[in-house]
Amino acid sequence: MKIRRRFHRLPLCLVLPLAAALVSALAGCSHDERTAEATPQTASGVELREASFQTVPGQIEAPGTVIAARTAEVAARTMGTLEAVLVREGQAVKAGESLARLDDRELAARAGAARSALEGALAGRAEAIQGGAAAKAQAEVAEKTYERFVYLRNQKSVAPQEFDEVESRRRAAQAALAAAGERQKQADAGVERARAEAQAAETASSYTRIVAPFTGIVSRRMAEAGSTAMPGMPLFVVEDTSRFQLRLQLEASSAAAARTGAVARVRLDALPGRDLEGRVVEVEGGADPASHTIGVRLELPADASIRSGLFGRAWFRNGERRALLLPQSAVIRRGQLAGVYVLDSSGVLRWRVVTLGQTSPEGSIELLAGLGAGEKFAANPGERDLDGKRAGGGQ
Fold first, then answer.
1. Residue 174: its H or E element
2. Count of domains in the chain?
3. Measured between alpha carbons, how far is 253 from 259 in angstroms, rounded to an integer?
4. Are 103 and 85 in contact (CB under 8 A)?
5. What's the pTM value of the predicted model, to 2 decimals?
6. What sign does the CA torsion over 354, 360, 363, 364 have?
7. What is the residue range of 222's domain?
8. Disulfide: which of 304, 313, 356, 357 matches 366 by Cβ 3.0-4.6 Å?
9. What is the pLDDT of residues 270-293, one digit of tens each?
């Protein structure tokens, strides 16, 4: 009330200029504040690049699974009770190393009986040989006696009855020699039969020791001590860890890119950031009628980090195409989103969500959506927040 009274006391010629000056001062302060707020900051050292299409190799992508190049299911070759299981899953084994052992008492008894039979057959053959030798000697004596009596008969110096007796002994000696020869043949056959049975028994006895077919690891064990093993029933799975392959399925229309000997880029999920070179070693002759795909196997390089069962992808080169590529340094990830700082029409950087595609062997990332050719983006944002800032080239 006092102020109002004071102004009422001032002359009008003084009040109007004072009011105009006050309004002008307040308007100037408000304009300065808005100008300060609207002026974006400048980020130094920002490298701007212009997005443009480039010619890149066309690629066909196919998922696959790592398998051992050589895998064997080890089974028993004879029926028996598993007396001991000597290995566990994941254990490294060498070729010929024992994996399990069957109860060999019955087979050992059979092998012993077969050996005894062989010894008996050998003894019988020895007797037959001796008998043959004796029969041969008797036959030779009888033959010489007969020849002398033939001479005497021609000289009329021997009685017919005596000659007939000599001739009869000669025939009997020849028959005995022939019989001895047959007995020797039978003895020889008996020896061969007994030897074959002994060898079969020894071989069957060796089947009680179940061994690794090659050097590798035991990837699966289906055997337990005390259980009965049957011929052909798998007890172990052994994998050759010296060589691995990527087994995948390709669409039949794309199978031409996977010719035998072709090279493909391979990446395994368990080895992030590492590209491997795979070479096609096997292509199925026909397509699967249900999926219309063709099976392909890629030989992988030797690497101690590779294991069977790993998931991976392979990329086969297939012509050329045009694509927008970005350096990996330009991509900023926020959770599940990927974005790029793009320069807008006012010269300010704005973070924009983009859709990314494949990563090239050189490290560039293909841009599928979110940025057009000719637009400029920050190539080296680093950890800085550039959203709403101007790009400054200097440091």
1. helix 160-206
2. 4
3. 13
4. no
5. 0.55
6. negative
7. 85-98+210-237
8. 357
9. 888 788 999 999 888 888 888 888
